[in-house]
Each structure stands twice: as structure tokens, then as C-alpha cells.
Amino acid sequence: MTPDIANMLAFGVLALASIASAIGVIAFKNAVHSALSLILTLFFVAMFYLQLGAMFIAVVQILIYAGAIMVLFLFVVTMLSPDTQEMEKNRLSWQRYAGILLGIVLVGALSYLIYSQVSSGSIMQTQHESLQQVVQKQGDIQAFGLALFHGFAFPFEVTSLLIVVAIIGALVFGRRSS
Amino acid sequence: MPAVVNLPPLSAYLVVSAILFTIGVLGVIIRRNPLIVFMSIELMLNAVNLSFLAFSRFLDSADGQMFVFVVLTVAAAEVVVGLAIIVTIFRTRRNIDVDEMNMLRG
Amino acid sequence: MQNFGLWMLLPPLLGFIILGLLGKVFSRAVIQTVAWAACGISFLAAGLNFLVMLGTAPDQRVSDVVHYTWMASGLASEFKVDFGILYDPLTAVMMLVITGVGLLIHIYSAGYMKDDPGFWRFFAYLNFFIFSMALLVLANNFLFLLVGWGLVGLASFLLIGFWYQRPAPVAAARKAFVINIIGDFGLMIALFLIFSNFGSLQYQEVFSHTAKLAAGSTTAIVICLLLFVACAAKSAQLPLYMWLPDAMEGPTPVSALIHAATMVTAGVYLVARTHVLFELAPTALLVVGIIGGLTALFAATIALVQLDIKRVLAYSTISQLGYMFMAESVHNYGAGIFHLMTHAFFKALLFLGAGAVIIALAHEQDMRKMGGLWKRMPITAWTFLIATLAISGVPPFAGFWSKDEILSTLFAQAMSTGNAVYYVLWGLALLTAALTAFYMFRLFFIVFTGTYRGEQAVVRRHEEEEEEEEEPGHHATPVPYYEIREVPGVMSTPLVLLGILSVVGGLIGMPFWSPFGQFLEPIFHGVEAPHLSGGMEWVSVILSLVAAAIGFGAAWSIYRKGYAYREKRNPFYQLLFNKYYVDELLDAILVKPILALGRGLTTALENFTLEGVSRGIAGVFRGTSSGLRTLQTGYMRNYAFIILVGVVLIILYYVVMRG
């Protein structure tokens, strides 16, 4: 089916916007500007998620990623910022150009592969029950919840362990050096 | 391909994801401020999340969303620890230029 | 017929083991007893076996006993070597000589070596030598002959280098061993050829199947010449004789036993044992004879002017061995063995007598410092005189009969074949006989008659510091004349016994009555030894007596009035005195180039190749690692970059492959 105009337009705008703000992340000299740019990018990517039908993830992205994580980033950036201007000369200036070149190559290669593989329809079908049917029956969030607690209960528990570890790590680092 | 309601093709999403990823990589390589490097890493993670979700939608499976869930959690934990490290380094060295941390040279 | 081979073989081995392991803690009396007993039992066994043999009929006097099979390899045991003992008349004679003279020298050594700290070692080695020589002679196959051959070489090495704390004996031992190896090599190749032609290494097998080798064929000649190479090395013939004079660095009993009476005669024994093969190769026999003759004359000329008492005797041994080979070369193996036996008696006696003199003069070996010992050491002097008469071929002493037989057999061969070569050989032999008489009596007169010159050396030594480097002996302070004493009984008894043997030992081999020849006849029965008719026999006898008389007369006239050493400048004398400069020649031609080659190879191989390769390899690693180290910049961004490069490469690979 041909995608309809609204979706294409939305996609195009979002794509351009997210790419532009991503470039902003790496281009700004000021770290605070970079952080704000990243927040924007996250926001646009969340829009993408919405378009793809992942409601819960989109919301979680905005709440947690853009909300909590980036705020943390901003704290640290502002704490360290006066000293973080890149004042000394760059010892590896050649990497900038080489990196850009390689970046272009990477994008080109990946795009090529994507187009050649994906368009040819060589992607496998999955064996799990169709998501769309569940969504239609019970709604997005319910679908997400069912999948999480039926198939991925163990990873879910493990992630909580991971968070504990991170907390402990942060505490250890946060102590005044003894 | 199962019925996807008029969305742009899968390859489009994947290309966008690839571009975002590459931008993140460039950020790691080019910038010297570790905070910005970290942010670039977050950017890369997000690009990957995007492609996961695209596949989830187009392959009609919830697995992709599960992956993204876990990746999100991991990213959060990672940011916590990473920022703690950077702060600690700043405390001891008063300087967070990545190029100055070259004591592992051979 | 019974075979007491093991009783002859094993006691000395046992003695060696006991003395070798425990000798250090034994007292001298115990060591002596063990050694004497070991050799004594061997001698008793040899004697008993000999008597048993006399009691059996002549055609049954062979006993070939196999004790066990040492190795049998090949699908049908094609290569089978047994440890077996062959006891026949030839063996009987050899064993009697070896153990008998050996026992006398064992007894003598107890006196000679009594102050030496290595007393136990000496007797251990001596027993080992008796064992090895017995093995060589008793073996019933070529392989154990080779084993014995090698072992006696080892025993010789150990005994020559007995006083290893000094450099000269060590060098001499090394020289002996190296030259012997050449002989061993020849023997081994000969063994290979024998096996490939006859299919077996047993004497019985080889000697009874002579049809497998065509007479006069090249193979036969080659085998015999290779065997003779071994003989030339072991019996010090040209061109492998150089080790024997140097071997005099060993203790005098060693020189007596090994380098006069027994080991050097192994070559003569070998030719006699394998005479069947030599009969198939007349050319080889001719070569044997020529070398024997040339050696005899060559060595005799050198002995004319030597100043060390032992060196004169060493060259004399070489010369007499040449005689034995000359006899064997004209198919008269019996005469060679006969001379072997009589030579053992008088040469051992000469060496032991020389040893007595050396001991009495506190290890002085330079004849210029001797003289007038007749009155002080009567027993030694008399026995020495007997031996000198014997070696010079004066009847009725032992040497006369054996030497005369050799001369007459050479003459007979010359006359019967008309071959000029044999006439030349006979002439050489006759000339050498005259020279032998001369230098032996020169030795006798210088040492025993005249006035004692040792004390002049005492005076002179204070005046001049110069001492020639080749002066032999340990030269301690010279012994004053009135302190020279006859040696004790343990040393003089063997002298007397050997003296008796030197007197009567030859009487069993006289031309008209030769029980010795008859005894050995079954062994050599296929061979026709040339003999002179009655009339010519007398001619030969008279000629040999004339030769001896000339030699004696010349010595008498020159040296009777005492001896005053004057260094002669004439070049002929110098040539003889320096042994024809053979050692120097070989040093320049062989030794130095080989050492230089070795040094060159060491430089090339070690420095260049080994060091180069190993350093090269290490260098490669160092280079690579320092090259790789540049990757470890410590900059995180570099690492990230490299990761990116890697990722790009992988993706490009997919692009290329799948695209």
C-alpha cells in the first residue's frame, strides 16, 4: 500500500529535525548547548516512536531519558562547565577529517545494505503471535505489558539488579575520598 | 509483509537510524569533552532503539520493544556510573580533557 | 674340548668394577690383591685351557661356544650377532701372552706406582685393559672384535692420560685416540663389506665360505686394505704411528703392557685371524708387507738418535711390529705370531727395566743424565742386557729365532717368486736388524756403562737456566750416585721372570724343531709359508748374525768409552732427531687448517647464523612490538577511531559480498 501523505510528511519533518539536532549535539562548543540539543533530539525520536506505535516506550523516553537522565547531565555540565572549554590545541586534529570521511562511508554502506536487503523482502517473519492483533484486541500498553511479563520476566528482574548495582556504584563514587 | 497502515517503508526508518548512529560515532571521535562524548553515546543508543522499534512494528512482534526497554534501563544505569566517574576525575585532576587521560599508553 | 673363555674374560672385568667403584677407599694391599687376583685367575684359566688343549687331538683343538645371542634383526634374522668365544691355538697363544705378561706387569706396577695417589685407578684401568684385550682375542665374530678393539683404544686413552693433571699426557692420550678412530673407521667399513658379501659376521661363517668372494677381486682387496688401516692405526705403522712415541707419557708399566706387548699386537693378531681373507687378496698382502718394511726402517732410523730412554724403546716397538707384518705379508702368519710372542717378552722386559732405572733415578728419563748404573743396579742391568741381546737377534736368545725365521721366510719368498719387491723387503729387514742392534746397544751402553752423568747435571743446573722444552720426564732433582739403589723385589721379580722367558722363549720355534709352528699349524693349514732349504737357511742365519754383529760392533766402538753429549749440527742428524719433522708437518697440513676451519665455521655458524637468526627473530619481535606499540597511544579517541575503522571494514565487506 502506498503510504499516505500525512505519514510521509510527518516522517520527513521528524527525520530532518532529529538529524539537525543530532548534529547540533556534536557541533556546539558549549556543552550546555549540546545537552539542550540532545534533549531536542530525544524528543523528536520519541515522536518517531509514537509513529511506530510504541506508545509506552515513547512516554518512557520522554519521562526518563529526556526528563531524568538529561537533567542529570545538565547538572554535571553546569558543575564542570567553566573548565571544560577546549582551550589546548588538538593533538589529533587529523581524526576530525578522517572521522567525517569514515562517517560518510559508513552511512553510505549501511544505506546501501539496507536498501538492498530490506527492499528485496529477505527479512524473516517472526514466529511470535502477531502484535497487531493483540494491540487491536487490547490496546498498546496492554500488549506491551503482556509481552513484558509473559516472555521477558527474567530480563525484567535482572534489570532491577542492574539498577541496584548502578546505585551502589554511584554511592561509592560519591563518597569523599577517605 | 503484514498490514502496516500506510507508514513509510522500513528502510527509511533504518536509514535515519543509521544516520543518527553515525553522527553519534563522529561525536565520540571528534569531541574532546567527555560529557559531549557521553552524550554522543546516548545518541547512538537512541538510534539503535529506533531501529529496534522499527523492526518491532514491521515484523509485528513485541520483542523489539522489550529490547528497547532493557536498553533504556541500561542506558540509565550507565549514565549514572559514567557521570560519577567523570565527576571523580574532575575532582582529582581539575581537567576533563579526554586527551589528557593517556596514562594507558604503551 | 672345553672352553674356559668366560673365566679368562670376566675376572678382570669384575676387578675393574670393584676397583672402579670401591677402590678409592681400599688400602693399597687390598687393591693390589684384587687386581693381581683378577689377572691371576685369568692367567690360570688361560694356562689350564692351554693344557687341556695340548691334551686333545690337533684336529679337535677348536672350541666355538656361543653364550647368548646379542642381537638378531631382520625378518629371518639376517643380521645375527652372538656373544661367543672362540678358543683355538691362535687364541691360546694370544691369551697366554696377554694374561701372562699382563700378570707380571700387574705385579711390577704394585711397586712402580706405590707412591701414586691414583693407585686404585691405575689398577682398575689395567684390569679393564686385560678384559678388553681378552674380549678382542676371544671373540668369535667380527662385531665383538670391533667392540674389543674400541675398548682397548679406550683403555689406552685412559692409561696414557693417567696423570691427567699435566697437559702433556692429556694431549698424548687425545692424539692416540684420534688416530685410533681412523683405524676403527676402517674396521667398521670393512665389517660392513664383509657382512654384505658373506651375510654374516661370525668367523666360522665367513672363513668357510670364501667362495663368496672372488680371489683377487677388488672387493677382497678393499676389505683387506680397510682391515689393514685398522691394523696400521692400532699397531702404529706408517702413516698412523705418531701416537705411539707420544704415548710414552703414560706410566712405564702401561708402555710395557699396552704399547709393547699386547695392544699394539692386536693388528698382527687381526691379520692372522683373517688370513683367509688376506689370502684372497695378494695385492693387499703386498701392501701390508711394503708398509711393514718401510715402517721398520723408518722407525729404526729415528731410534738411532733419540735421547729419551722410553722413546728409543717406542720407536723400536714400531720397528719390530713392522717385522711382524712383513712376515705375515709373505703368508707366514705363524712367524708373525712367533715374533709377537718373543717380542712381548723382551720388549716388556726392556720397558720394565727402563722403568726400574727411571724410578731409581727419581723419574729421570733423559739418557744424557744416566750412565754407570751397572754397578748400582745389577739385576736390572743383567736382565736389560738379556733383553738387548734378544732384540738384537743374538742366539740362543728368543729374538734370534723369531727374527731369523722372518728374515729367512722373506728371503725364501723373494727367491721363489723372483719378485724384486720381496728382495727389497728382505734387504730392508736385514738393514733394520743391523740398526736395531746398534741403537739397542747404544741405549745399553749409555745407560749402564761409563760414568754417571746425573751429578754433572746437578752442577750444571745451577749455572744455566736453559732447558730444552722436549726434555722428558718429571725431572726432579737428580739423584746422587751413591743413593741409586736396585729396585725392590716386587719389581725385580718380574724382570727376572721375563729375562728367563727371553732366554728360552724362542727355543720352541727353531727351524729344525718347532713345536710352536706345529701348534699353530691347524689354523694356517691352508697356507703355504715359504721356507728355505737347509743350505740357504744357513746362509740366512749367517747373514742375520753378521747384521747383528755389525750393529753391536758399531755401538761398542762409539759408546763403550762413555758418552758425552754434543749437539750435532749436521742436518741429517737433525732430521732424525726431530723424527723427520712429521709431527710438525702434520700440524701445519692438517691440524692448523682444521682448527682454522673450525674457527671460521664457528664464526659463520654461531655469530652469523645462530646469533643472527636468533637475534634476527628477537629483532623481528622487537620491531613488531615497537611498531604495534604505537597503536597504544593512550588516547581514547584513537581507540574509538580504530573501532570505527573496523566496523566500516566489516560493513564494506558485506557490501562487497552480498551486494
UniProtKB/TrEMBL annotation, chain A:
Span of the signal peptide: none
Transmembrane residue ranges: 6-28, 35-52, 58-77, 97-115, 152-173
Gene3D superfamilies hit by this protein: NADH-ubiquinone/plastoquinone oxidoreductase chain 6, subunit NuoJ
Known catalytic reactions: a quinone + NADH + 5 H(+)(in) = a quinol + NAD(+) + 4 H(+)(out)
Membrane topology note: Multi-pass membrane protein
Keyword Cytoplasm (UniProt): no
Enzyme class, spelled out: translocase
GO MF term list: NADH dehydrogenase (ubiquinone) activity; quinone binding
Family: Belongs to the complex I subunit 6 family.
Role summary: NDH-1 shuttles electrons from NADH, via FMN and iron-sulfur (Fe-S) centers, to quinones in the respiratory chain. Couples the redox reaction to proton translocation (for every two electrons transferred, four hydrogen ions are translocated across the cytoplasmic membrane), and thus conserves the redox energy in a proton gradient.
Record protein name field: NADH-quinone oxidoreductase subunit J
Source organism of the structure: Thermosporothrix hazakensis
UniProtKB/TrEMBL annotation, chain B:
Subcellular location: Cell membrane; Membrane
Transmembrane segments: 12-30, 35-55, 67-90
Main location: membrane
GO molecular function, one term: NADH dehydrogenase (quinone) (non-electrogenic) activity
EC number annotated for this UniProt entry: 7.1.1.-
Keyword Membrane recorded: yes
Membrane protein topology class: Multi-pass membrane protein
GO terms for cellular component: NADH dehydrogenase complex; plasma membrane
Record bears the keyword Translocase: yes
InterPro entries linked: NADH_UbQ_OxRdtase_chain4L/K (IPR001133), NUOK/Mnh_C1-like (IPR039428)
Record-level GO BP terms: ATP synthesis coupled electron transport
Catalytic reaction(s) noted: a quinone + NADH + 5 H(+)(in) = a quinol + NAD(+) + 4 H(+)(out)
Keywords: Cell membrane, Membrane, NAD, Quinone, Translocase, Transmembrane, Transmembrane helix, Transport, Ubiquinone
Family: Belongs to the complex I subunit 4L family.
Quaternary structure and partners: NDH-1 is composed of 14 different subunits. Subunits NuoA, H, J, K, L, M, N constitute the membrane sector of the complex.
Function: NDH-1 shuttles electrons from NADH, via FMN and iron-sulfur (Fe-S) centers, to quinones in the respiratory chain. The immediate electron acceptor for the enzyme in this species is believed to be ubiquinone. Couples the redox reaction to proton translocation (for every two electrons transferred, four hydrogen ions are translocated across the cytoplasmic membrane), and thus conserves the redox energy in a proton gradient.
Protein name listed in UniProt: NADH-quinone oxidoreductase subunit K
Species the sequence originates in: Thermosporothrix sp. COM3
From TrEMBL, chain C:
PANTHER family linked: NADH-UBIQUINONE OXIDOREDUCTASE CHAIN 5 (PTHR42829)
Places the protein is found: Endomembrane system; Membrane
Transmembrane regions: 6-26, 33-54, 85-107, 119-138, 144-164, 176-195, 215-233, 254-272, 284-305, 312-331, 337-361, 382-401, 421-445, 495-513, 538-559, 639-656
Stored InterPro entries: NADHpl_OxRdtase_5_subgr, ND/Mrp_TM, NU5C-like, Proton_antipo_N
Pfam families attached to this UniProt entry: Proton_antipo_M, Proton_antipo_N
Domain NADH-Ubiquinone oxidoreductase (complex I) chain 5 N-terminal as annotated: residue spans: 77-123
Domain of life: Bacteria
Coiled coil: none
Protein's membrane topology: Multi-pass membrane protein
UniProt KW keywords: Membrane, Transmembrane, Transmembrane helix
Name the UniProt record assigns to this protein: NADH-quinone oxidoreductase subunit L
Biological process annotations from GO: ATP synthesis coupled electron transport; electron transport coupled proton transport
Chain ranges of the NADH:quinone oxidoreductase/Mrp antiporter transmembrane domain: 139-417
Organism: Thermosporothrix hazakensis
